Amino acid sequence: MARLFLEKGAGLEVKGNDGWTALHIAACDGHEAVARLFLEKGADIEVKMRYGSTALHLAAYNASNGHEAVARLFLEKGAGLEVKDNDERTALQFAASNGHEAVARLLLEKGAGLEVRNDFGSTALQLAAGSGHEAMARLLLEKGAGLEVKDSDGRTALQYAASNGHEAVARLFLEKGAGIEWS
Length: 183
What we know:
Organism: Lasallia pustulata
Order of helices and strands: HHHHHHHHHHH
Keywords: ANK repeat, Repeat
Pfam families: Ank_2
Protein name: Ankyrin repeat-containing domain
InterPro entries: Ankyrin_rpt (IPR002110), Ankyrin_rpt-contain_sf (IPR036770)
């Protein structure tokens, strides 16, 4: 169907009111073949929607069925690992805050920065902790994420976990030596 629309002259860079292009929709829904077709036909892999998200951000955020393959495709085609949205979030931060380990692992293998900060000064580990994603937190720690890194308000990953009631994540951080003396 997508091929037919393109043959009939549908524009790849046409944006809806929210700034979404056809590539954004394919990324969000995990349609690798459609995303590949759009890229082959010249879709801009770095085009941003209204809130600054790229197709890679959407693949990382919605990483369920097929999204790892879509994220891999975008990386193969040169999507920027450290591109930030309007809130200064990267694809790794989207994956971390939503517990999408497979995509996070892929992004880390490609060199995504562990200590990149969003507009609140939060890292991927802090976002995973605040959302209660223990396996994601464990992965990020294994890859070298800083346990004692503080955000703009001086909060650590342990504080993110504690303030949101995520006992398993807090326990993990304590086992890894997180400090509990807060100032």
